[in-house]
Design a protein that fits this description.
The complex is a heterodimer. By secondary structure, chain A is α/β, with parallel strands linked by helices. Chain A has helices spanning about 50-60, 85-95, 105, 115-125, 130-145, 150-155, 160-175, 190-210, 220-225, 245-250, 255-260, 330-335, 360-365, 385-395, 400-415, 430-445, 460-480, 490-495, 515-520, 525-530; strands at about 10-15, 25-35, 40-45, 70-75, 80, 95-100, 180-185, 210-215, 230-235, 235-245, 280-290, 305-315, 320-325, 345-350, 355, 370-375, 450-455, 480-485, 500-505, 505-515. The chains are: A alpha/beta, B mainly alpha.
């Protein structure tokens, strides 16, 4: 570029107000942001920082009148967008500004074929003939590297995989060669290997088209992977912005420093020499098949094997990580070993007793030795019970004196670093991280030998995630707990697990000490997983933060 | 700036305060509450404010309202006091409404909870039975039951309950089907909580709000059904119910319309109060609606 055209997007002192009674008066306050052609700018922030509302404001899609732009300017190619009529905005949307959403399944219309939906964009914004539109749609599907574009053109959204759906969304948003692409957490719902492919695709197409990209994310790994410039939002305020290198490696603002300090490093914990501890949990030859129920007309569908021939050992005081992508059967494993799901074959021995062969009565008694921490801390706490009752419920069911159990529950709250004043509250009064702490306290109340944690931190913001992980590690060491830790996040696994097993399509493809597997992966799938971790070449600088 | 997540937000006001705040935002619901309280007061004070049996002769037959202060709302063709009938009728109508609703909700909750929680063949059997009940028009079934069991007030109430349980059963089943897969149910099972406790102590409280709202609808419908029965002269003649009064007032509708109109207004206001109350409860209990 020889001349200097106006920036694609120029936000100047942007201010978005929230309705009365929200936690703060403005969702965004005085946001300045410039995106030039051919640039990817990452807007980073934790949940509630106002990053998605920023995208809504640019697109003119805010839930007005409760949430609206009250000040500042939004200039697109030098042209003010505020005050444009709905009709004018409609013309811009899709044609010049397009958006890629987080969840392609909900952003695509399930009733229409992929081809129809791409065709619609062209029909609304161009005067192409039917044949030209189809040719263009197929060309776009080709460009986003969908295998067999012709067959994908006629497929319905549910018939293609999540990664392919996101590719279709990208094809749709790029089909008119927009000058600005807003991507709102486009890879958060995807597996790590797919995520890397999609990030590469966005980068590649953006370079070809020379478009400006506003990339909204919470993940610093993704930032390291894709961004040219970074802007960090904290509760509606821009706290830091600059080039990727400057922000990631030399953050200035304490908030940014705390956030980056919380990103788990990819260095596994030191190897513990405690491999002669007794085995507390042992799974042998586990197998689980989900019989698919055929429809009336569609005939029988094939049964899906979620787990086949799984064998593992968990020793006292050890943390065993189960990692894999979605569909690898890792969640099924966590449900089988706690017998929330009946298994087809195999045995799970808890201290020598087979859990899977136990009668319902024996099982209820055995359950106190194996407890679970769930993924979604909101869904796993009964919203109608007080915290003290939630924690004391288990011991009371197993015959403890209710009064003493409630006293113990208050002590457990202190153990998970919550104030005992929390005891008489209801779950909705807490933040996500606090709820997960309550979930952990509930599991600990039973004084179990084994805790099965199913993605316990994946619903949490990165700074909260770090604190909950630290708590889990602390408790494990202090109480000599054995953890079966299911996760999709290799960074998290690296932080906590002594040994890991890597699962693919229901089978273990590799297992061993975390440090060894990370340093020298043997199986091609593990190698692929490890090389797909976003920002794997960036090591978060070790920062001394006052928040830690 | 601190990122620690262990500080707890300031406590929320107690639940009933929140409930009342949300409830009173709906003006119509407040009106419903006032009407409801009025009906309850009428039912409670029937024997105190207007002494005397509503079936006894209180004055000359067909005295118009506001003529004789001994019978302020007039008398019917047998000389019975209309005001006294309205007061005692409130008692009967409320009693029938509450008891029939309880019967309907209890049957509905048990059947819906079992069907929704266990699924499979249990669900199939229970839902076919529910459908069998649903295919027969409510009122026809009610007439049949009353014809079989007789017109005693206990049987009428029970019969109304029996014809009204299908809708709450379906509702509870739907709630259970969506709630039983939630993680907190797994969490409770993982603690070793028994099935019965899971159904009634974990899931049911969460399924309750829509049922409570629907109960107000059933209550209104029960009162209407009882009135309709009485209007067809199938009510219990030993009690002064509003339906009975309208049924008997029909004979003198042209010469003394007030005999039917006054209890008619009472029914309209009572039913209205229940549906407004239901709307207010819906606003107050619906968790999706914040602020």
């Amino acid at each position: 570029m020889t001349q200097t055209p106006p920036p694609v997007l120029d936000l100047c002192k942007l201010e978005i107000s929230l309705p009365k009674g929200a936690d703060r008066p403005y969702a965004l306050e005085g946001l300045d942001l410039t995106i030039n052609a051919g640039e990817i700018v990452c807007l980073v922030g934790e949940s509630g920082s106002g990053k998605s509302l920023c995208a809504g404001a640019i697109m003119g899609l805010l839930p007005e009148p409760h949430v609206r732009v009250t000040g500042g300017a939004i200039r697109f190619m030098g042209e003010e967008l505020r005050g444009k009529s709905d009709a004018e905005m409609r013309k811009l949307r899709g044609a010049d500004i397009s958006m890629i959403f987080q969840e392609p399944m909900t952003a695509l219309n399930p009733q229409k074929t992929v081809g129809w939906q791409i065709d619609e964009v062209l029909r609304l914004h161009t005067k192409m003939t039917k044949a030209e539109r189809k040719a263009r749609a197929l060309e776009m599907l080709e460009r986003v590297h969908i295998p067999e574009p012709a067959s994908a053109y006629n497929a319905y959204p549910h018939q293609i995989s999540g990664g392919q759906r996101q590719r279709v969304m990208i094809a749709m948003s790029l089909v008119l060669s927009p000058k600005l692409i807003i991507a709102d957490e486009p890879t958060t719902a995807l597996d790590v290997t797919t995520q890397l492919q999609i990030l590469k695709l966005i980068r590649e197409l953006q370079e070809e088209e020379g478009a400006g990209v506003l990339f909204i994310t919470h993940d610093f790994g993704v930032v390291a992977e894709i961004a040219d410039k970074v802007a960090v939002l904290c509760r509606g305020e821009l706290v830091e912005s600059g080039t990727t290198d400057a922000v990631l490696n030399r953050p200035q603002h304490p908030y940014t420093r705390a956030l980056i300090g919380a990103v788990p490093a990819l260095t596994p914990p030191p190897v513990k020499a405690a491999s002669d501890a007794p085995v507390v949990l042992k799974g042998t030859g586990l197998k689980k098949t989900f019989a698919a129920r055929g429809g009336l007309l569609s005939g029988k569908r094939k049964a899906v094997t979620a787990v086949k021939d799984l064998t593992f050992e968990l020793r006292q005081g050890e943390t065993l990580g189960v990692v894999g992508e979605s569909g690898s059967g890792k969640t099924t494993v966590s449900r089988i070993v706690t017998r929330l799901l009946e298994c087809d074959q195999g045995s799970v021995e808890l201290d020598g007793t087979d859990l899977l062969a136990a009668t319902p009565k024996e099982l209820r008694a055995l359950r106190q030795h194996i407890q679970m921490v769930f993924q979604d801390p909101m869904a796993s706490l009964n919203p109608r019970k007080r915290v003290v009752d939630l924690i004391a419920q288990g011991p009371i069911v197993h015959g403890a004196d209710p009064k003493k159990a409630r006293e113990d529950a208050k002590r457990l709250l202190e153990l998970v670093e919550l104030s005992p004043a929390a005891a008489n509250r209801f779950p909705h009064e807490f933040s996500g991280g606090q709820r997960q702490r309550i979930g952990i306290a509930r599991a600990l109340a039973m004084e179990p030998k084994v805790i099965v944690a199913d993605e316990p931190v994946s619903a949490l913001d990165v700074s909260v995630q770090a604190q909950v992980l630290k708590l889990l590690a602390d408790l494990r060491d202090r109480l000599n707990l054995s953890l079966l830790f299911v996760t999709h996040d290799l960074r998290v696994a690296a932080q906590l697990c002594d040994r890991i097993i890597v699962m693919q399509k229901g089978e273990i493809v590799e297992s061993g000490l975390t440090a060894e597997v990370f340093a020298n992966p043997q199986h091609p799938y593990t190698q692929n997983l490890l090389s797909s971790i976003p920002g794997r070449d960036w090591t978060p600088p070790s920062l001394h933060t006052d928040a830690a | 700036m601190t990122l620690a997540d262990t500080e707890i937000a300031p406590p929320e006001p107690p639940r009933y305060v929140m409930f009342w705040r949300r409830y009173k935002r709906n003006r119509a619901a407040l009106l419903g509450l006032v009407l409801f309280v009025l009906v309850v007061v009428m039912a409670l004070t029937a024997g105190i404010i207007d002494p005397g049996d509503p079936l006894r002769r209180a004055g000359d037959p067909l005295t118009p309202p506001f003529v004789n202060w001994a019978t302020p709302l007039g008398t019917d063709q047998l000389g019975r006091d209309v005001l006294s009938g309205v007061f005692y009728g409130a008692r009967i109508s409320l009693l029938i409404g509450v008891v029939a609703t309880l019967v309907a909700i209890v049957i509905g909750v048990v059947i819906g909870a079992l069907a929704g929680h266990f699924g499979g063949w249990v669900d199939d059997v229970l839902m076919r039975i529910t459908e069998a009940f649903q295919t027969i028009p409510n009122f026809v079934l009610l007439l049949t039951l009353v014809a079989i069991m007789g017109s005693k007030i206990e049987w009428i109430t029970l019969a109304i309950g029996i014809v009204s349980w299908t809708a709450p059963a379906r509702m509870v089943r739907a709630e259970f089907m969506s709630l039983r897969n939630r993680e907190f149910v797994d969490a409770a099972r993982n603690l070793g909580v028994s099935n019965t406790s899971i159904i009634f102590r974990e899931i049911l409280p969460n399924a309750l709000p829509p049922i409570v709202v629907y109960a107000s609808v059933i209550m209104a419908l029960s009162i209407l059904m009882e009135s309709a029965l009485a209007f067809l002269a199938l009510g219990d003649p030993n009690y002064a119910s509003w339906g009975n009064m309208i049924g008997q007032g029909r004979a003198v509708l042209r010469s003394a319309p007030y005999c039917a109109v006054i209890p008619g207004i009472a029914i309209i206001l009572t039913v209205l109060s229940f549906s407004l109350l239901g709307e207010g409860l819906n606003d107050a209990l619906n968790p999706r609606q914040k602020k």
